[in-house]
Give the backbone structure.
Amino acid sequence: MAKQLREYTWDEVKNWLVIDSRVYDVTKFMSLHPGGAHVLSDKNVAGQDATDAFFALHRQEVLQRPQYSRLQIGTIKGEIALVKYAPEELSQVPYAEPSWLASGYFSPYYTENHRQFQKAMRKFFVEVVAPDAQACEDNGKRLSQAVVDKLAELNIIAMRFGPGKHLKGLTLMGGIVKPEEFDYFHESIVLAELGRLGTRGYYDGFLAGDTIGLPPVLNFGSPEIQKMVVPDVLQGKKFICLAITEAFAGSDVSGLQTYAYKDGNDWVINGTKKWITNGMFADWFTTGCRTDTGFTVILIPRIEGVETRPIKTGYSPTAGTAFVTFDNVRVPLSHTLGGEGKGMNVILSNFNHERWMMCCVMLRTQRLIVEECLKWSQQRQVFGKPLNAQAVIRNKLALMISRVEAAQNWLENITYQMNHSYKEQSDKLAGPIGFLKQFATRTGRATAGDATLIFGGRGITTTGMGKLIENYHRGSPFDAILGGAEDVLGDLGVRQAMKKMPKNARL
Ligand SMILES: Cc1cc2nc3c(=O)[nH]c(=O)nc-3n(C[C@H](O)[C@H](O)[C@H](O)COP(=O)(O)OP(=O)(O)OC[C@H]3O[C@@H](n4cnc5c(N)ncnc54)[C@H](O)[C@@H]3O)c2cc1C
């Protein structure tokens, strides 16, 4: 039964704490207060309006935690709370939402259906995913099966492979969007809500391996292989990852040393793979191998001879980053994806989608960082003024906002092209997607640096006010390496443009 809250006058609350018109009886909690009991009995706090003092030190979600919310005994008569805790609603902070969601702005790209879909997706992410994201980011465990089951129930796992025949007959998000109407803007909404959580390790742990490991099976696997793998992955019963990189083969895949040779009707595979996302919990490994006919992609189940060990990186182990060894692993030749010696086509075919997905997530996190900085620079007082009274801080905010807005507009344009010319993606869009990813990761790191300065010590502290800034500062370099290193992608874009230069172009 909900606790009855009383209304109090200011005269009645002398020994208690008032935060944003809510009255808290902290007498029993004082000795437990992490900042010391004296803070709560200070004459400027006890029985006074402690709102500013509280929000100078705590994030608003602290008040929602059961151990603190149960201390509330009432409200101040005639006053209403100013700070509304409503993470599922659209933020009213300028630039905190992309302009298509901000009131008073228009977009040529998004329909009413996208808006409905976004609303439902945000509610789902706030209620179901966010608590798991924070817990796993901190404890390093993989995302919980309960969340995976819910993702499968709403067919969100399937939606992460974009529009296509794999959606046929599925009920998407309880029926909000029909499979044949699902487009890349819908998918970008799923990714944006993931990015808005601000937990970089969890983002990769949130089945990033599936999103890069399954497309080669969907596009190049035999019907038997697809039947064996696809339904279980889409239903969240099994997990898959992409295992290409090795110690001597990163940007340059030609250095691959994992070797597969034929023995009767089997491949026998030996070698190692490095930094394999979700490898720690994957059941299947879509693996790049050197064979006598060239580069071949082979689907390897977690069977005898396959071992995975965690690699410690700067972000949370919830990503399941693995060092994988294959020791005389035997799989049938029918596990070849895309034909012998044709592995490069298989791998290249999903690069654009992978990089575009990364842009969707990272730009939404970048926007979250802008929101954090706008809020903090308004509430933090220095030298008797809010932080945003300093021109140097406003200049940082101006650059942050411009960077994320520029990239968002570019992303929407590319997404629109994807909706119209998926087949031509590699020809037309590989360059622009490469450039966008390079731009987004460079601007992301610039914004991470500026945000850290705005937050000071809090910006490099993993809990409390600056925790999202710290996570972003630590996580944004990952975006610059994974899915194609920043410089490599810029170079790819220019080389693509050079190929299309008219031979007769002259100054
Ligand atoms: C956390 C994490 C997760 C990952 N997940 C996966 C995964 O799931 N599956 C998988 O197969 N791989 C994965 N990778 C590997 C990732 O794709 C590679 O790290 C990336 O391709 C770069 O390779 P490298 O680290 O060997 O760097 P290198 O290839 O050694 O390059 C180092 C740097 O040299 C520069 N450089 C290299 N070549 C060029 C060039 N031609 N032009 C200009 N500059 C260049 C770039 O700046 C680059 O950053 C992951 C990596 C990490 C760190």
Summary: Residues 343-379 form the longest helix (37 residues).
